[in-house]
Amino acid sequence: MRRDGLRLVERASHAEAALWRRLRYEDDGACREPLFDLYAALARTIARAEFRRRPAYGLEKADFEQLAFEGLLEAIERYDPMHGAPFSAFARPRIRGAIADGAARSSEGAAQFSARRRLEADRLKSLLPAAKAGADPLAELAELASALAIGMMVESARHAANSMDALSAYESLAWRDMQVRVMEEIDRLAGTERSVMQQHYLNDVPFVEIARLLKVSKGRVAQIHRAAVARLRTRLRKE
Amino acid sequence: MPAMCDEATMQQLVEAMQAGQDQLERVSALLEEFPEDARLQFLHGSMLISAGRLIEAHRALSRAVALAPDFAIARFQLGFFQLTSGEAEHALETWGRLDRLADGHYLRKFVDGLRCLIRDDFTGAIEQLQQGAALNEENPPLNRDMQLIIDQCRSLLARERAADQSGEAASETSLILQQFANKNLH
Prior knowledge:
The complex is a heterodimer.
Chain A: H1 4-9, H2 12-25, H3 32-53, H4 61-78, H5 87-107, H6 115-127, H7 137-158, H8 160-163, H9 169-188, H10 191-202, H11 207-214, H12 218-238
Chain B: H1 7-18, H2 24-33, H3 38-50, H4 54-67, H5 72-84, H6 88-95, H7 106-118, H8 122-135, H9 140-185
Helix pairs in contact in B: 2-3, 3-4, 4-5, 5-6, 7-8, 8-9
């Protein structure tokens, strides 16, 4: 938890400069993620504006956001903090460029899946049980369903008001309680598991971008995701 | 013994800075000639902070402390810069050596006050920072920075007290409502 005393003296510009310094000159890769978080809102804003402005070629708003995240990550990798220009000025054209490139690729028919379906496909592939001789297919299906439900719950926590429309007052309360518990458990997860769950479910970042963010393979992200979901299920069962 | 900038030039630099004149280029030029002068590195670091060149500022202040580990004001300012950069652990490490200063030294009081602040002990922070300010005759601008922190601690404590009081009022109200509800049930 952040302490009030530190918040009193911390200056945003100093804190950001320290993150760039550590990422660029002290080889501290852990600073990549807080920098991404700092500018994710900028990427989303640009994605929304571009979505309104340019032909979508069948892409959805979420596709534009993910292209914007790609551009943001690229900009984080390339930015020279000693160069003088603030990062937002450096990143803006690169984020727009990533969206333009992605939209062009899509117009050529290369994009087969929407961003939403790619996220869901990532998730499902990571959670699918490995084929085991003699395994009970029904039990495995139940396991898979509960693992996917945890993801749905986290996602719907972001749109809590809408998700409760169709529920009774009691059901809404129970659902909301469960959401709060899931979110708390995510906060309690250790470093990379927490990062993967937060970026994927709360920021809609696909596994391939999380892999770039954390400097691990996409397969490793899938493993971490699977382990995190399993841990959440165990902890939620215990309570 | 590394070559050092002469006292008269240093004095001129400090006076020009105090008069609000930009001396960044001049200090940079002097550093070409005297790269191991911790005082120049410290002045350079302070100017770079004002210019918003924060990564270079960190480098210059760190260099000043590395060149002269007992250069107390440089060590204090490096730690303070780390604190404002969200690097409290580094700040505590940097300030460690200042515990060797005499008990009544203003920088020790300031450091103790900032340590209290890191622990969210706002009353302790105000007390120590005020004592430091009273003892500090050598660096008045630093008192202004510390006074800002004292003021922020005071308003935070005032907000906390107000929140506590409204919390008490709310729980009294809910107690009355509870009794009212119980009465209606019977």
